[in-house]
Design a protein that fits this description.
Elements: H1 2-17, H2 29-34, E1 39-48, E2 51-60, E3 72-78, H3 84-97, H4 103-116, E4 125-131, E5 135-140, E6 143-148, H5 151-162, H6 169-175
Antiparallel strand pairs: 1-2, 2-3, 3-4, 4-5, 5-6
């Protein structure tokens, strides 16, 4: 009985951390046209109380500089329906927690993210393209939905996943190609 419980636990862990399917191997054509030369860096899942919320993959341009200083795309395929307002508010809570911006700036950013983050259904994908020193572009299901010419907002938004202070250090490590292990 103990061996069976161990096998089930191992299979569960393997399932949680198994490589993702073709989702992690391609970007929508609009993204690749906007930022050619991006290559897959890493991928992982976000779970909340054991339930999968989304799969994410990170694509980066060439270079040795920090990821936030290079062009990159973060693709997220949702496993659950999430309304736009919840995506925006959760993003704003994390941006605030990470210490970006004062309240007037955060209010402006909330309005911009409301344009960029539509409601999603299971299986739908959002892709954010970080353009260093310029801002970000967002695609929903392969269709460009927003261009945000605010470099500070772009840095703050992507910090949710890529900053060392993220709430999901294991996902961060996987997105970065397991180059860094969580501490």
């Amino acid at each position: 009985m103990r061996a069976r419980a161990l096998l089930v636990a191992l299979l569960f862990v393997a399932g949680v951390h198994a490589p993702l399917d073709s989702f992690a191997r391609s970007l929508p054509p609009g993204v690749t046209a906007a930022a050619g030369g991006l290559r897959p860096l890493g991928a992982g899942e976000m779970r909340w109380f054991g339930f999968k919320v989304y799969e994410a993959s990170l694509w980066a341009g060439p270079g040795e500089s920090a990821i936030i200083d290079r062009p990159f795309a973060l693709a997220i395929r949702y496993a659950r329906a999430i309304p736009s307002q919840q995506l925006v508010e959760t993003s704003m809570d994390e941006i605030r927690r990470l210490g970006f911006g004062d309240e007037p700036r955060l209010a402006r950013w909330r309005a911009l993210l409301s344009q960029a983050l539509p409601s999603v259904e299971p299986g739908e994908t959002l892709v954010g393209l970080h353009v260093p020193n310029r801002g970000a572009r967002f695609w929903h299901e392969g269709r460009l939905v927003a261009e945000l010419p605010d470099a500070e907002l772009a840095r703050a938004f992507f910090a949710i996943w890529l900053d060392e202070r993220t709430r999901e250090p294991e996902l961060r490590a996987r997105l970065l190609g397991a180059a860094e292990a969580p501490r």
